Amino acid sequence: MFAKARNTGLAVATVLVVLGLSACASGSASHQVVPDFTGDLTRPLDAPAGTGAPANPKPAAPVAEHTAHGAADVVRYFWNAYNYAYDTYDTAPLESVSRPGCSVCSEVSSDVRLIQAAGTQVRGHRMQLIDIDQIVGADGTSVRVEARISREDGVAVEADGSQTELPGLDPRHSTATLTWEDGAWKVDSIRTSA
């Protein structure tokens, strides 16, 4: 994906493929809608599309709320933190809502560190949370947040100034599995399909 990144063994494209096709290990028994699922769950992400920089210095951490809204807020925060990580190379906000077993989460963090080491900047190419379709829970300790996401076109600017166009992604279904742990929702997995 990135010319210099290919030379240094950086596999940014892997994360894009992972987001398009992967899942972290997860599974659950019969599901039911979390009882307090009400209100508007389609608030936009913090950062405006196409700016190449976060609208806020750092995404505001979600309030730890053991509800459907709390889970939806964590998914919103996850995508804000994802964009923020690529904009600033700071993966701490993303990691703060990710469980250790989430392979997509750890691959994004590794990718960001490799991009930073290569001196590459990603402009645009931000994830967009279109809407949250439903929140389904099994037992109050785990939920599945079904949403639609897309990614805008972008460009990778290498340390030498060369640029590589980064195609966006058409809207697709996203499933985030979260676990309530230590008083907060944490992301177990993110899986997407066209």
Automatic annotation (TrEMBL):
Domain DUF6318: 57-189
Name of this chain's protein: DUF6318 family protein
Spans through the membrane: none
InterPro entries in alphabetical order: DUF6318
Alphabetically ordered keywords of this record: Signal
Top-level taxonomic group: Bacteria
Leader peptide range in chain numbering: 1-25
